[in-house]
């Protein structure tokens, strides 16, 4: 991989303010252009995110970050790792990068017109080649270490409701092969054909049980009709996938995972369906007989959508090292009759900081964007070092 020249670095960095202003315009143009020339790539991209604009905004932020840090790529290490895991889960390969590069550079030229000259476009071509090389290398390393390549058929061996909105699917290889190990907190991609748009669509779901050698479990929230097309896959799984059905599954990926080598305390903080990777983490800890101090903090709307509550209650009752802090935003009459929650209202750090602010603890946070922002801000305000805060954005941005 040829290093960028000082002039190329300067030209790319100089375009960062333009990308901050027009980045989403460029990336929206890019996706439309690429799909027009290569409609087969629609199978690799979440079309719901395309329609909502979320994918264009995410790409615009990534391109801006790359331009702004072109002279300090070390600052992008975490972002590169995150993107590589997402790409590997979707089976994005080296041969896709030239197509993306061609259409991205053409989009920059077509949107900016005379505002960008050829030497600057050439600098961006070189910069894209550099970034593609970094990602291809990182993704190849993930493919080399993956349990299998591409998508593999799994059969649904069991289907179980966890709440009014969340249903678990227990999956095992349809060929009778072994069920792989994974790091608690990781996810798989599930690919389904969506007849409404005529293409296969992948969705990523956290694994919601500890590695056990018998099955992989995902727990899927049914999206509301108002959330369509985002809910095509979740509703299709709930309504169209029964015991004995076959689904296509990618190997586990994701850098958000429990560090099983540590013995220090763990605080697991989740909102809505963000509970799923936390269940895998807690199940892994108690399954191994870990003596680590664990606080399981969860927030949801009410008891009807509180998944895994009976399991959590049993774990807390039988493991003295595990405690809970469950928040219901609003309690129904039925909720007040039981003992499934601890606090009323949204998760408030101050209400359980005494039990959760543990020396040397690692804090794992997963849920909707607003929930995540509030909890991470509270952790920072409490003086928790950034390296002990681990995050994963999950779901559509609404508290489940």
UniProtKB/TrEMBL annotation:
Transmembrane segments: none
Its EC number(s): 1.14.12.17
Highest taxon in the source lineage: Bacteria
Native organism taxonomy: Bacteria, Pseudomonadati, Pseudomonadota, Betaproteobacteria, Burkholderiales
Catalytic activity of the protein: 2 nitric oxide + NADH + 2 O2 = 2 nitrate + NAD(+) + H(+); 2 nitric oxide + NADPH + 2 O2 = 2 nitrate + NADP(+) + H(+)
Similarity field: In the C-terminal section; belongs to the flavoprotein pyridine nucleotide cytochrome reductase family.
Class of enzymatic activity (EC top level): oxidoreductase
The protein's role, per its UniProt record: Is involved in NO detoxification in an aerobic process, termed nitric oxide dioxygenase (NOD) reaction that utilizes O(2) and NAD(P)H to convert NO to nitrate, which protects the bacterium from various noxious nitrogen compounds. Therefore, plays a central role in the inducible response to nitrosative stress.
GO biological process: cellular response to nitrosative stress; nitric oxide catabolic process; response to toxic substance
SUPFAM superfamilies from the UniProt entry: Ferredoxin reductase-like, C-terminal NADP-linked domain, Globin-like, Riboflavin synthase domain-like
Pfam family, one: NAD_binding_1
Protein name as it appears in the record: Flavohemoprotein
Cofactor(s) annotated in UniProt: FAD; heme b
